Every structure is written in C-alpha cells, then in structure tokens.
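testing teh design pipeline on a random one, pls ignore if ur not involved
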C-alpha cells in the first residue's frame, strides 16, 4: 500500500505534547515510508493556502529530538477556521505534491478540520 507523500500541520493552542506528536509522526514515516516525502505546513491552514510547506523528510534524529522537547509549535500554529472556499486551493496543493496522507495535530477544531478534509476528498474522488 502506498502512502504517497505526507503533510503535517499543527493548529490550535500549543500544548505540552504538540511537538512530541510531530516528532513521533516524522520518526514513524521515516521508518515505514522511506520513499515518501514528509512536508510540514507553516502555521497550519494559513501556510497551506499560501503554499508555505517545507520538505522535512531528512531532518536528523538529533533535530527530531530537539523538536520533541521544544515548547510551542515547531511548525507554527493557527486558529484560522477552514472556509468552504479554501478546499479547492488546498486540494490543488495536495495534488501538486502527491500528498495522500495528511496529519493535523491539535484539538477539537483540528479534528473537525480533518473530518472536513476527509469528506471533501471522498466527494471529489481524491485519495487521502
């Protein structure tokens, strides 16, 4: 099963585990999907909409350890809500980068955003 490339974003309030979650996701995909590229979105939805995603695939184990123990949000967070008009721009970016796996690290609103993405992907036939 191909996972395609991976996109990770952080959103909502910063917590003690938000960067540890990021570190765990990166480490896992470096091991289970070595041919996939891992991208991080600057400031969540805002970064995706403006095309500010960065390839973080090759971050070293020391870098991952540093991220996991750092306060705040390593990728930058946002509280911006997803608007219905955002999805076309976002799915164009996902398609351009061959992203099929999308992790959203955050709280309840972030979970709602993830559900919205999944439903939209299903409705347009995008493999996510």
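output:
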């Amino acid at each position: 099963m191909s996972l395609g490339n991976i996109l990770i974003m952080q959103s909502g309030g910063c917590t003690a585990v938000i960067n540890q979650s990021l570190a765990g996701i990166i480490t896992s995909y470096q091991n289970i999907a070595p041919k996939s590229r891992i991208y991080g979105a600057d400031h969540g939805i805002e970064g995706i909409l403006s095309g500010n995603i960065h390839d973080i695939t090759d971050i070293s184990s020391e870098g991952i350890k540093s991220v996991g123990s750092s306060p705040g949000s390593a990728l930058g967070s946002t509280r911006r809500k997803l608007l219905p008009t955002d999805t076309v721009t976002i799915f164009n970016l996902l398609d351009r980068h061959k992203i099929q796996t999308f992790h959203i690290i955050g709280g309840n609103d972030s979970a709602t955003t993830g559900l919205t993405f999944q439903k939209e992907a299903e409705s347009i036939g995008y493999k996510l």
